[in-house]
Amino acid sequence: MKAPLLEVKDLCINISSYKGKYPLTDCINFNVNSGETFGLVGESGCGKSITALSIMRLLSYPLFIKSGNIFLDQQDLLKYSEREMRQVRGKNISMIFQEPMTSLDPIFTVQDQLIEVIKIHRKNTLDEMLEKITKLLELFGISRVKDVLASYPHQLSGGMLQRVMIAMAMMLDPRLLIADEPTTALDVTIQAQILSLMNDLKEHYDTSILIITHDLGVIAETCNRVAVLYAGQIVEQGEVHDIFYNSAHPYTKCLLRSMRSLGSKEKLYSIKGMVPSMNDIGEGCRFRARCDYAGEGCEQEQVLADVASAHICRCHKAAML
Predict the structure, then answer these.
(1) Following DSSP, what letter does each residue of 5-34 receive, concatenated?
(2) Virtual CA dihedral for 116, 77, 61, 97, nearest 10 degrees?
(3) Tell me: the pLDDT tens digits for 1-38?
(4) DSSP letter string over 263-296?
(5) Cβ distance 46 to 40 under 8 Å?
(6) By the 8 A CB rule, do 237 and 8 touch?
(7) Which of 117, 170, 236, 253 fits 228 for a cystine, CB–CB 3.0-4.6 Å?
(8) What is the value of pTM for the model shown?
(9) Domains in the chain: boundaries
């Protein structure tokens, strides 16, 4: 069997504070295969974005990786020096950050910032770089390429900025693209266009994609497999079809109930309570305070166990729900 492109093993991320060091993620394990779209889904504060930043080696104090491994093409990125990682970022792994409005430098034109990406890794002439940039922007549905390149970030719409960010991420044909909330703050029409664009990217470039989102609709539209995060733990993982139609963990079931159906007149379901602070988590299941099925045995630490082939869940009651 071919080794996965990306393999995250037992990743534990901590945070330092004046009260001590606290875990933010607990032994995260997942992999992304070549040409696959994999999703990480969960509420805000569950650990999705810091997991993505750790893959890029962009965590900064007070966050740090306590233990684990992150393999890209079977090479452990956590053993790379910062100089070596600068060669990996953009060239082998690229990331679309959460806020396109704030991800670009406001004092440089779009052209200057796109050219900078190429200059760091390749020695091309200005004409060669502009040709590459123009073709890529046209591929992403931008018709007024010259006008866009001459613009400053504040002069472009959110949808246009997101296209520019995707173009910047794909400038060097990376093996893996990490998209952190790629449709946040975009209207429904633009969201659909961005998701369609990302699906086209996978087909056109054979790029693997890791999508970070709280929106299960995005997962359904784009992903092959998905891992559900809650309070720094993966609580369920499997094929998208299994997660949507045979979900096993109570938290996953709650997320699915929270989705708004087109034309539905029912009151939107809301999960009671909040994601707990990591320094307040005690023993046992981390979701039990919000779970309608909590009872005997939930005070004990839950482990990931097989529900079906390629489908795992962190709940001792999974087979009974």
Answers:
(1) SEEEEEEEEEEEETTEEEESS-SEEEEE-T
(2) 50
(3) 678 999 999 999 999 988 788 889 999 999 999 999 99
(4) T--SPPP--SS-PPPGGG--SS-TTGGG-TT--T
(5) no
(6) no
(7) 236
(8) 0.92
(9) 249-321
